[in-house]
Amino acid sequence: MDELEFCVKSLSYPLGMLLENLERKPGESVRVTEKAITLPELPFAALCYLTGIALFDSLDLVDKKRLSGDYDSLGTFRRKLLNSTLGGKLKPYLESPGRYISPSERLSIDWLEFQRRAERVRPYLERLKNLAETKERAAFLKGAAFLSELSVDGGLLLGYLAEDEKLKGLINAALGKHNPGFKEAVKRYFAALRG
User: Which of 56, 140, 142, 159 is the Cys-Cys partner for 135 at CB 3.0 to 4.6 Å?
Assistant: First the structure.
């Protein structure tokens, strides 16, 4: 998993699934086909946002409706970027995304595969919900050592399924504490964001 896939999955796991098998090619704009995605040379944070928008735009109406909350997450990410120290540098890309995205081929999310993956991590989520209800933060983090068993991908899916922002924050803290692979992926992701 590269930093771009990590970024998109952290915003919308189902959209990130679309990136898994796509060849990355250089290009003038972000364009998605069934086999490849073209990526212009842009700051990474802008590229992540534009990729998420391009993937969302490639979906049919049913999937778009199903992922309307994820589209809102892309908007929240955009606002955070604009309000960050990088905001000035990213503004042209984030305020006029249509200039940097070309029409894409229709893609569809494999919802059966998504459900299969979700079923594998739901037991972890239930354990974490129980911990969050009964423990203070320090005890929660200590009790969440079992997250060391998860892959980076599983950790991202777990955060996506959590939905509640407070629980997501606790999960990410616990993954950072107990899962070295996830911690390294986060470090690479933040290094890419800072450019």
Answer: 140
DSSP letter at 22?
Answer: P
Per-residue pLDDT tens digits for 97-107: 999 999 989 99
Neighbours of 113 (CB within 10 A): 12
Q: Pick from 8, 2, 23: which is nearest to 157 by CA?
A: 8
Residue 171 near residue 162, CB atoms below 8 Å: yes
| CA neighbor of 30 nearest in space, from 11, 8, 49 | 49
Residues in the chain where the model's pLDDT stays below 70: none
Please work out, in degrees rounded to the nearest 5, the angle formed at the alpha carbon of residue 14 by the alpha carbons of 58 and 125: 165
User: What global pTM score does this model have?
Assistant: 0.94
Reference 48, options 79, 18, 9, 22; nearest CA is: 9
Range 118-149 burial, b when 16+ CB lie within 10 A, else e: beebeebbeebeebbeeeeeeebbebbeebee
With vertex at residue 19, the alpha carbon angle to CA 18 and CA 21, rounded to the nearest 5 degrees, is 95
